[in-house]
# Entry
Amino acid sequence: MTPDAQGWRDRFGTHLGTERRLSAHTGSNYLREIDALIAWCDANGIERWEALDTQHLRLFAARSHAGGLSPRSVQRRLSAVRTFLRYLQRERVLKELFYSSGLRLSELIGLDLGALDLADRTVRVTGKGNKTRILPVGRKAIEALEAWLAARTTAAAIGETALFTGRNGRRVGQRTIQARVARWARLQGLPVHVHPHLFRHSFASHLLESSQDLRGVQELLGHADIATTQVYTHLDFQHLARIYDRAHPRARKKT
# Structure
């Protein structure tokens, strides 16, 4: 980070103490998480806050989890980072930022109310092998979720813990979502068969194409084997091979 970018970290610390009136201990905890973000930016050649984009933040969250942080600690880190970014937005250093999640259909259906944190814009997901990961939720998704939660109060059966429910008031089924996605695709006149898993494929391809961080995408998708992450992309073979070689130097063919 440039000296000016580092300076915003210090100004943020002053903001926490003077404007938000947080204790020195709480302010120190916030700054520790921002320092982790700065270290990650330095390691990835990001010199200015303006250069930080949504893909970077997704990968920062994934790398934090891969580095040994518990889901709760990742959530706390993202909360601090989000507060910092809002401060930078207020100071007109950054534009509006948003996230996407790339869930499996089974993970989406399996979400309970307690897994969603609207304030932090994150969701706690339990994937295959009972592996838990914390994922950011996009701005548009947050808006839709807020509207759904308002309607859910009368749509869900009493005692139902599922985040998403069907017409019977119970946890929605996979076939219901598949049919709804296909219906909306037809109404939009799309010439291809659209299914829920296609969103996950697109998420993986677009993120890998823009970030070229195979390991980070693997963490976000919750894949145990990196080979699975490769299969999930729609990139051409040569482009994927270049990304793979950068992620795995020993994988390069000897000449």
Q: What stands out?
A: The longest helix spans residues 24-43. The chain has a mean pLDDT of 79. The first strand starts at residue 116 and ends at 117.
